[in-house]
């Protein structure tokens, strides 16, 4: 079982048991607490818009894609839930490029949490309707 | 007045008068006909998934972003309507990264046309709800 | 015959006759003058690091790649010379990602000009030695 | 002390002692052996050109950038040496975009190894001369 957590430090939760949507409040709270500890690892000398920035801005990478690429490089290719936490009192949804990368792994619920642990949830299908997918590749 | 057209050749329509959603059928038909003439300009030796491909795949670029970057390099920064035409009997919506780039210019209707000129329309807000935007940049 | 010019407005020169390296001084001077007229078209509300920027920084695009993608969308796939002009008293070379995209089209001389029209020249092979290329794609 | 290893699985070496260029043969051999064990983690259903691919090709990411982003997300921002191993009898150098991302961290030696452990070495400055850097950002 794997959860992605980011906005601060992208990381992977193996220990947390995913007990289904109905008990979301519990594990969202745990994850949000973890995420608040981990802010110091981002590298954003320029803008604070990207998780990993670069002098050549187009080579930076959002936290969400950093988390997913990292998970894949460790052998994980199945995700049940994605959680985006923000350290302020607002809901932040992933950018369009990150939604596209997430969608590679199918539809799943995305939790977007505020600093107080309250959250909004939408499915990837709702966040990226009519998603471009492998079925469109001309072979 | 500017329309973007792609899936084949990204280009810019200056002459066509945008007469509003109610008369969409007319100008969608004109645009779709134009787009079918222009397929030969894409550079896709590898996969046909991207409009401008590169040996290093992550440096390729979709037709939609090629069209928008091209328009901007010619001084256009306001778009009223976006049209994605496909040469087959299906509706193709832009990828998430392209939706994000379009959203930079505000909300607008996106027309997605099939080879026969029939079309589906959604707003950018519907295609990318809760879009990440400039209001989130930490200053 | 095609020349790419940028740092300001990426554009394409059809009229200028490329008379060889030995007469570079002449056409570099013409191109540099043209480029100084065209600065107003870039879209960089955030950083001035990219030619076409986006709220999601990783979706921005350098001037060099904008110019090449634009040329390709108009049907050009062969380039004899690339020229990067800077409006200040310094030489600017393209970023690594842009060098990779240029290298897709083979080796060629790259002229890097200062505001006064003086220039440095290197080949793409010198700017990106041991370049990753199509010969490495596993088929 | 940190070494990046890829072409297969990007990963981070903490245990290996970097004993300087003069003893490169020893730790290059160790790293190359490690890298051969780890090929199964790449996600390349489409082309095998990228380490982490996506249906939308421009959203894929090379192994080198995956490794660097992963290291940064774990808090590492200083690298002494970079090693690119290939599983075949050839030397592969990083693409231009990856060289640019590496260059963010200064100059350093890059080792490029063949399947038999023999290697070529160049500095980043040699692989990306006149590199675009933070000194060019207009503030």
UniProtKB/TrEMBL annotation, chains A, B, C, D:
All copies of the CMP/dCMP-type deaminase domain together span 26-135
Q: Which residues form a coiled coil?
A: none
Instruction: State whether keyword Metal-binding applies.
Output: yes
**Gene3D superfamilies hit by this protein:** Cytidine Deaminase, domain 2 (3.40.140.10)
Under the heading InterPro entries, the entry gives: APOBEC/CMP_deaminase_Zn-bd (IPR016192), CMP_dCMP_dom (IPR002125), Cyt/Deoxycyt_deaminase (IPR050202), Cytidine_deaminase-like (IPR016193)
Which Pfam family, giving just one, matches this sequence? dCMP_cyt_deam_1
Source domain of life: Eukaryota
**What are its cofactors?**
Zn(2+)
Q: An example of a Gene Ontology BP annotation on this entry?
A: nucleobase-containing small molecule metabolic process
UniProt entry keywords in alphabetical sequence: Hydrolase, Metal-binding, Zinc
Question: Could you cite one Gene Ontology molecular function of this protein?
Answer: identical protein binding
Question: Can you cite an annotated GO cellular component?
Answer: cytosol
Family affiliation: Belongs to the cytidine and deoxycytidylate deaminase family.
Return the protein name: Cytidine deaminase
- Which species does this protein come from? Amphiprion percula
């Amino acid at each position: 079982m794997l959860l992605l957590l980011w906005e601060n430090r992208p990381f992977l939760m193996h220990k947390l048991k995913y007990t289904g949507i109905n008990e979301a409040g519990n594990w969202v709270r745990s994850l949000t607490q973890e995420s608040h500890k981990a802010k110091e690892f981002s590298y954003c000398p320029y803008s604070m818009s990207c998780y990993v920035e670069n002098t050549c801005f187009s080579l930076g990478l959002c936290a969400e894609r950093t988390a997913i690429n990292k998970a894949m490089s460790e052998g994980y290719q199945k995700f049940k839930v994605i959680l985006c936490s923000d350290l302020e009192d607002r809901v932040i949804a992933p950018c369009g490029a990150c939604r596209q990368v997430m969608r590679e792994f199918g539809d799943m619920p995305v939790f977007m949490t505020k600093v107080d642990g309250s959250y909004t949830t939408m499915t990837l299908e709702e966040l990226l309707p009519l998603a471009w997918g492998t079925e469109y590749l001309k072979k």
